[in-house]
């Protein structure tokens, strides 16, 4: 259980299988976000059809509404949401910071007022684990603090030290062996602080590690060096999860740097706003041109929307504010990201990842590939060597 | 083509097959409403799965946005919407009256300002037919005036006479033989005016007839006698369509009186408001009790929502304003109405329709079956006899 079996490598990028109680997933993978117990607008059957492997649930939202006890009464998130595969829950830490009002952070944990009804709530490492055990995901996350960007260097340091003490309390509080607890490495964009966080975190030897505190507003030119620095210092034989990321270009760059797992609300959120992800960049269905185009959103896509609808029809739905519009765009965008990681996996397996990623990026960025992206690809083939392990064991 | 083959009778109720270019439908049937080229929130695949047979499109909405030319460029509504089965379009008349601003009715037609952008638009019998030919439905409706309730008797009379002149112009304007034009009988709740409208309308011998001008605010005690009076005077061997109806009880009462076709936005609209249709009446998922119920919406339903979700989960989606909530409630409500007509057909075929309808109504109305409903059932077994025809020919 929770074994991570690497099947192919290309530079730092790798394809692996991760075994969870509710099934084996193949990485790199993108996880759709089901904040409130539903991936917005999409049914579990559709998630399975488009190749979703693991769904993320948000502890903060679910503990406030409907409450973890009701989810537990359904046998956890699979029974509650009817998605039969693996789940991951976050710890609630990030959203307490971004959504809770009047939050106060102490060594004990965080107290805040609910964004729903203003009631006072406390979230501690122990409470986060208890809620996540009730929610019953296959992977649960350590309760951490994710400092904003920018933040004082000293604050980030104090925070990452506390995050490690919280991690120790999470490990202590955890009671369900069928759940994998992932630790989270912090340290902002400062490599020395990342190193300190790694030194504090790695000894806990959790079944997976997350790169936290990134994609919170910092420029990509600072984010990706921190991803590269952290990812190559995480154990080779355990999954690496870049939290809250991302856009298509983030997935390709992250995979290049050895990241295995991603999640983001972006595909569904941008879909609700009328945008479709394609290899040519983001298509805006609010614009006038698509209203007359009788072609699919994306010629190469096999999703229900691309197999059945024209851009003109989908643009009509967006204009008319019809529910089927955001539903179909969300479905397409999720499928686009799933296909993107599938294509990346195929390229890794054939040893053509960098070439594939370069070709993809030339088209996606319309010839103007940003330096940070080029640098991520360049670093994919370099860096210090991981301990060699018997990867088939 | 457009043959209506009666397969079973029970009192005035009947089961029949109606042959259209895009397939044969079995009546009585309920038609989901796809106002703007989509049944709100529901995919064509789902419509097929829940037993939808024919979808209604609204001429008024579609001519204003996206415009009938774009729909025609997709090969009509099936190509535009990806629903591969039969369609019916209304004439636009009803919605000009209810949605158009500053509308002016003359012998020529109706001029109005679009509810979308205030632009001046004219709709005439000829234009309605031209738009409906571009939309390409299997059944198209004559352009009529539907007077409000209450309306002056004299106005209703002048209006029904003009509606017949408009019908003659529709018949004249029609060019596509693969579309069946249905005439609409008006006359409000006045039986003598209904008789006059019948006398004017029947000679046009269209492949089907609609009961118009009902369900516009009049009490059920006035509506159903008008339905009974009109339905029994329409040709036995042609489909009868009660427009804009209805609620579950309306379907059962209408079927009892010999109605074959129904349409209404009710199941999707009430679903978006958090209500589920069941044999026990309408379940309000905004209330507190369902939030703790781990049972399906409806034990006897086979829809996706009832097979996968608890009331507690669906109530959570409603409370959290998650798109999947209205989607699943709309799906269930449509399936409920499709199952209701399927059960009615089964009862007609076994000669047990009245007994079934009584049992259904006792439970649905919780013992307080309204007089108008009882009277509709009573009338089902009476009334003057239709011309006997060879029903298998």
Summary, kept brief:
Two copies of one chain form a homodimer. In chain A, 42% of the residues lie in helices and 18% in strands.
User: What is the helix tally of chain A?
Assistant: 16
Specify the CATH homologous superfamily of the largest domain in chain A: Queuine tRNA-ribosyltransferase-like
The helical percent of chain A reads 40-55%
Shape of chain A: globular
**Name of the level-1 CATH class of the largest domain in chain A:** Alpha Beta
Give the low-pLDDT segments of chain A.
Answer: 384-393
User: In terms of quaternary structure, what is this?
Assistant: homodimer
What does this entry look like structurally?
Two copies of one chain form a homodimer. With 393 residues, the first copy, chain A, is an alpha/beta fold. The first copy, chain A, has two domains: 4-264, Alpha-Beta Barrel (TIM Barrel), CATH 3.20.20; 270-337, no CATH class. The first copy, chain A, contains 16 helices and 17 strands. Chain A has helices spanning 44-49, 59-64, 68-73, 77-81, 93-99, 125-135, 153-173, 191-201, 220-233, 248-256, 266-272, 304-308, 311-319, 324-349, 353-364, 371-380; strands spanning 4-10, 13-20, 23-27, 29-31, 33-34, 55-57, 87-89, 101-105, 110-113, 120-123, 139-141, 180-185, 208-211, 240-242, 261-263, 275-278, 281-284. In chain A, helix 8 (191-201) runs parallel beside helix 9 and helix 10 runs parallel beside helix 16. The interface between A and B is large, with 36 and 36 residues. Chains A, B: Its cofactor is Zn(2+). Chains A, B: It is an enzyme of class 2 (transferase). Chains A, B: Pfam families: TGT (PF01702).
């Amino acid at each position: 259980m929770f074994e991570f079996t690497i099947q192919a490598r290309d530079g730092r990028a790798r394809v692996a299988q991760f075994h969870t109680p509710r099934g084996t997933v193949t990485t790199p993978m993108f996880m759709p976000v089901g904040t409130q117990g539903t991936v917005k607008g999409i049914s579990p059957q559709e998630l399975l059809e488009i190749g979703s492997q693991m769904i993320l649930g948000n502890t903060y939202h679910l503990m406030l509404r409907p409450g973890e006890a009701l989810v537990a009464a359904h046998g956890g998130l699979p029974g509650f949401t009817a998605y039969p595969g693996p789940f991951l829950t976050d710890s609630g830490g990030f959203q307490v910071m971004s959504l809770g009002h009047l939050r106060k952070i102490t060594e004990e944990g965080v107290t805040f007022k609910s964004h729903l009804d203003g009631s006072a709530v406390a979230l501690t490492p122990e409470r986060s684990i208890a809620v996540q055990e009730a929610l019953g995901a296959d992977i649960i996350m350590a309760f951490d603090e994710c400092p904003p960007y920018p933040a004082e260097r000293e604050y980030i340091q104090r925070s990452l030290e506390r995050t490690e003490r919280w991690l120790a309390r999470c490990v202590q509080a955890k009671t369900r062996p069928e759940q994998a607890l992932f630790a989270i490495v912090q340290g902002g964009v400062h490599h020395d602080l990342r190193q300190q966080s790694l030194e504090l975190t790695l000894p806990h030897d959790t079944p997976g590690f997350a790169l936290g505190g990134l994609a919170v507003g910092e420029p990509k030119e600072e984010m990706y060096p921190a991803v590269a620095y952290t990812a190559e210092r995480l154990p080779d034989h355990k999954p690496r999860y870049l939290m809250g990321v991302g856009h298509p270009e983030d997935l390709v760059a992250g995979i290049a740097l050895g990241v295995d797992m991603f999640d983001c609300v972006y595909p569904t959120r941008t879909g609700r706003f009328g945008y479709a992800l394609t290899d040519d960049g983001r298509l805006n269905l609010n614009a006038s041109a698509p209203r007359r185009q009788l072609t699919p959103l994306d010629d190469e896509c096999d999703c229900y929307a691309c197999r059945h609808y024209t851009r003109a029809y989908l643009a009509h739905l967006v204009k008319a504010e019809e529910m089927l519009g955001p539903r179909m765009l969300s479905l397409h965008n999720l499928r686009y990201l799933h296909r993107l990681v599938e294509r990346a996996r195929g390229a890794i397996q054939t040893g053509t990842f960098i070439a594939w990623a370069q070709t993809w990026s030339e088209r996606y960025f319309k010839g103007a590939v940003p330096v940070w992206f080029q640098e991520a690809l360049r670093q994919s083939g370099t860096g210090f060597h991981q301990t060699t392990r018997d990867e088939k064991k």
